Structure formats: structure tokens, C-alpha cells
Amino acid sequence: FDAVSVVVAKRDGAELSTAQIDWIVDAYTRGDRVADEQMAALAMAICLRGMTRRETADWTAAMVRSGTRLDFPGLTRPTVDKHSTGGVGDKITLPLAPLVAACGAAVPQLSGRGLGHTGGTLDKLESLAGWRADLTVDRMRAALADPGVGAVVAAATEDLAPADRKLYALRDVTGTVESIPLIASSIMSKKIAEGTGALVLDVKVGSGAFMKTADAARELAVAMVELGADAGVATSALLTDMSTPLGATVGNALEVRESCEVLEGGGPADVVELTLALAREMLAAAGLDAVDPADVLRSGAAYDRWRAMVRFQGGDPDAPLPTARHTDIVTADADGVVTAIDALPVGLAAWRLGAGRERQGDPVQAGAGVEIHAAIGDAVRRGDTLFTMHTDTPEYFDAARERLTAAVTLGAHTSERRAPERRALV
Ligand code: URA
Questions:
Q1: GO annotations under biological process (predicted)?
Q2: What angle do CA 65, 156, 260 make, to 5 degrees?
């Protein structure tokens, strides 16, 4: 094969053969005979022409084979993981992983950092003093085998789907991220390579998500569920609402605090509800559906697991969480009923305040972010506090205030807070 003929075939709408896909993914990863500009042209052709289910499965398998596929020999408990496509205030992994471990499954989660307005689980956990994301595979295995721990959230190692790492960086700068087969194969190659036996996907829909419409989210969910099935990983998906932030905090340490509240039996109802819904899916996928995660949460066992997990990865669950040096508030500019709090501008405000990064590799501020004091359906008076902003860089208060003010819609009528739309797929 040669790169140009593969690009031309896809450009003209042909279905690529398994051999063509294996060759181009392998040659590109090795930096041999496929240059960045050729892979970028192919990614654009895939964006425009799409890929069939078979092509997408072959593409995913080739990306998995570009590195190591982890396994957990000797583990007696079933493994199950969840992946969220990313949102605003989405801290669900923090209460969910210890909860599912306390219910008897092993949770091997390789996770990522935030990019743009969406937060990343590793950034959140790194606000715990001493906590480390970079574990060796042996330490991950030890965490899962330890009956008092049973869950690990760690950074993907360099040799996990290296083809995706290289291709994702290229897509990011060539306008070729927004392709359902490319997104599905990117996410699933990493999840298949991490070695989990079962997987539950939380596919976000709405302004704060990658997928803005339910149709697009469903198409992505179906593509990922099929890829899981093709690779022997029992995969299901929920579509959940991301038109408004999850919970009442957006930002790293702020979200850890809120997650601890959930683990201690409190916390916002939407976070508790989604954590339990995903836990039920995960336990069903792991064959443990006799266990009720609500009972386990109430018993305090999930909170004990959280503390054990944090300690296993070098963190101190009792250390005070970092706080930002400056805070300021955003108030309502009129009387009315809160009818919407738009996720995207809240995410952008938190990001601007320092909770996220502008470029890969930048540091994040652990204490930065936004607390949301109003809920949809609340009646507010002009001057009431809607948000508290937290940052070490107060020069961004004005820009963040503008976004937060625009995020809130005040109306004359009461509207019920919309429950997250959920739909289980096979
Ligand atoms: N997340 C990923 O890991 N890959 C994509 O392509 C998009 C989101």
C-alpha cells in the first residue's frame, strides 16, 4: 500500500479493506511512510465520507494493537468501568468508582485531563494532597486485587493505544475531531486497551457536551456499544442531560468536596441520582445486580472505599482541600424564576477562572471554579447571589461574570428542574 492510494480511495467514497486500515494505522504510528499531512487528509476524508461498522471496528482494533492491552490475571472479581464523553461539573467518577468497588466489582479506570471547557477526572483528583495519577500497571493490579480498595483511577500509560494519542493530537489541529466513527474509535480503543471486562458509557447531550443533539449522541452511543461488542467488552450506554451543569460546583477541588458530600450521604440530588443510575448499569454488566448501590452508599462503605483509594494512590483524604486566593459573587440582575442555567457558559467561566487549561500540559488551579447557588425553578430577587467565583487570577473575574450572567435565564413562570434524560441501550 501507499498513503496516497488509501486517502484517494476514502476521498472517492470507497470502503477501506481491513488490510488497508491495518497498514495505515500501523505505519502512521511507527512514523513510517505515512506523514502527518497524509493522515490529516485521510481523517478529513473520513469526516466527510464516514466509515462503515466494519471499517470502524477494524480501525479501533488497529489502534488497540498499536500498544499494549492490559489484563488482570488472577483477579476474582469482575471488572467494569464507565466512561463519560465529558461535561460541565461531571464529577461522577469520584463517587461512582468507590461505590461500585464497595458493591463487589473491580473498577480499572484509565482517565484523562480536561480540555477546553470540560473538566478532567485526573485534574480533580490531583487537588488531593499527594495523590498521584501515574501508576505502573503492577500498582494498578495491586489496587484492584486489594479487597479493601478494588478501584483505581490512573493516567493512561504511554503504550496504551499510542495510535490514538498521535491521531487525536493531529485531529485537534485539523478540524477533524467531529466525526462519529473517529470519536467512537478513539474512546473505545483506549477503553478496550485498558482491559476492562464490561463498560458503561455516559454519553452527554446538550450545550455543555460534545454532542449537542440527542440524535447525534444516540448515533455515537450506538457506534461505541457496537465497537465494545465487536471487541468482546460488554458495553451499554446511557444518554444523559448536559444542557445544565451537574451538581452545584464546577472546578477541581470544589468538585472533590461535592463528591465527598455524596459519599457521606448528602450532596445534590442530580449527582446522587446519576451516580446510582450508572452504578446500577455497571453492576448489571458485571453480573452483580443483586446488590443495591443505594444501600451501600447509605451504609458508608463507599466513603470508606474512597478513603482507601485515595490513600492507595498517595493522597491524604483528611488533608484540607486547596482553596483559591480570591472569590467574588455574581448576582441576579432582575427578579424572576430561574428557567435555565446553560452548561456551556458556566464551563467556559470555570475554565477562564483557571479550572481548565488553554493548551495541553498547562497547569490548572486546584481551587478555581464556580459554585452555583441557584437551581432551575428557584425564584430569585434582583441582587440575590447566583454564583460564587473562585480563582488565583482575579483579572478574569469580569470575563467570567459576563458568561455567568448570560448563562442564567430568568422567566416569569416556575419550571420544574428537568431530570437528566436517560436511555439505556444494549
Ligand atoms: N474523546 C476522545 O478520547 N476522543 C475523541 O475523539 C473525542 C473525545
A1: pyrimidine nucleobase metabolic process; pyrimidine nucleoside metabolic process
A2: 145
